[in-house]
Design goal:
This protein is α+β, with helices and mostly antiparallel strands. The protein has nine helices and 18 strands. It binds iron/sulfur cluster (SF4).
Length: 384
């Protein structure tokens, strides 16, 4: 088992993390769905307390940093009034991803969230424990989930834990996922944050023989082996009637939010620093005009960074400035960004996605530009 700190530091509103630049809070929306009116309230609350932007995290959460330490009661009450804190006890365990384009998963996700909050024993899940719901497309199964449910059709689906899976009907999915989470809470040794920390994660599956790792998943309809379909992260652009709007460096501004609110009453925050606007395709130009990224090409669609210096005390590398300068260089020199790159200031690699090239403390803007524009086989300074 990997060595892990004894304290679960995942922040929430009621237990902020104190960073170099002040208090940091994280707000969770199961499945990422959020009313644009609420999003506007959050950005306004952040701005009124000294934080000019709201960040999107790699787990599809909202994050506000550089807040006063300690948080004022007025700030806490203002966020609570938005409805984003339905359970004080379960605040930090409501980490639930869902395929952003799959509207037919919304009810399932809502039912699961309600069941999660109704189970007192699950308040002690680690804050890093991640649930995921997908449809047949396999969207979000690319992420580092602990327990996932892939609904193949109205009548069939697969419960996924570690490398194992079991057929579970959609109407039984909520109960089955709650049971897996309860088993984790009950049996995981101290210091285990994720199912990956267990010797045999598949043992958490219902009615599973111990150490039956890697057994084939059987489709209940035909008995055939069914492996989970896993889709790549959604790239910015128009998908059917929806828009996947990239948020440059994951920094959501009031201007972005105003544009989103003009197009839709609700958006879906993705784990890829983007916002899905269902039904937003006819208004894609207004989103682009507000600075959101609506094409898959270009550096702003491919570049991300941790917060770095001066906000984080673990580095002296100004990662965000490096990334911004690199993106501007790529645009001004008419270069072609072909690689997904994440710039971090230290080996903690915060916010690293599954398919990113990770640049650890790149010394220069040219290094970031090179990583963005050079095929993956070439050696890049600082790349790990
Ligand atoms: S990767 Fe390192 S420098 Fe960047 S935010 Fe995380 S701890 Fe700070």
């Amino acid at each position: 088992m990997s060595e892990r700190p004894a304290l679960d530091r995942c922040p929430g509103l009621l237990r902020p993390f104190i960073a170099e630049d002040g208090a940091l809070v994280r707000l969770r929306m199961p499945g990422g769905r959020l009313a644009t009116s609420v999003l506007r309230e959050v950005v306004e609350i952040a701005g009124a307390n000294g934080a000019p932007v709201v960040q999107l995290t790699s787990r599809g959460n909202l994050q506000v940093r550089a807040l006063p330490d300690p948080l004022s009661l007025a700030l806490i009450e203002a966020v609570e009034a938005t409805g984003l804190l339905p359970s004080a006890s379960h605040e930090r365990v409501r980490n639930i991803l869902a395929a952003p384009l799959a509207r037919d998963l919304d009810d399932l996700v809502d039912s699961f969230d309600a069941a999660l909050m109704a189970e007192p024993r699950l308040a002690s899940l680690p804050g890093r424990f991640l649930f995921a719901f997908s449809d047949a497309s396999g969207s979000v199964l690319s992420e580092r989930w602990d327990v996932a449910y892939q609904r193949h059709s109205r009548k069939s689906g697969t419960l996924l834990v570690g490398d194992g899976g079991a057929p579970v009907k959609p109407e039984d999915a909520v109960t089955a996922m709650i049971e897996v989470a309860l088993r984790f809470v009950e049996f995981a040794p101290e210091g285990a944050w994720n199912v990956r920390d267990l010797p045999n994660p598949s043992d958490l599956l219902p009615h599973r023989a111990p150490h039956d790792e890697g057994a084939p998943r059987r489709d209940p309809r035909d008995g055939a082996t069914r492996r989970p379909v896993v889709a790549r992260p959604l790239a910015p652009g128009v998908v059917g009637d929806a828009v996947v709007a990239g948020v440059p460096l994951g920094m959501l501004t009031l201007e972005h939010v105003e544009a989103l609110a003009h197009v839709a009453d609700e958006v879906v925050i993705t784990p890829w620093r983007s916002v899905v606007v269902r039904g937003g395709a006819p208004r894609v130009e207004s989103l682009r005009s507000a600075g959101l990224v609506t094409e898959p090409e270009g550096p702003w669609a491919r570049l991300s960074a941790c917060v770095g210096a001066p906000s984080c005390r673990r580095t002296t590398v100004p990662t965000l400035d490096l990334a911004r300068s690199a993106a501007e260089t790529v645009v001004s020199q008419r270069l072609t960004a072909t690689q997904d790159v994440h710039v971090v200031g230290c080996e903690r690699r915060c916010g690293t996605g599954i398919s990113n090239r990770v640049l650890v403390a790149p010394p220069t803007v040219d290094d970031v530009v090179s990583a963005l524009t050079t095929p993956a086989t070439a050696a890049i300074r600082g790349e790990q």
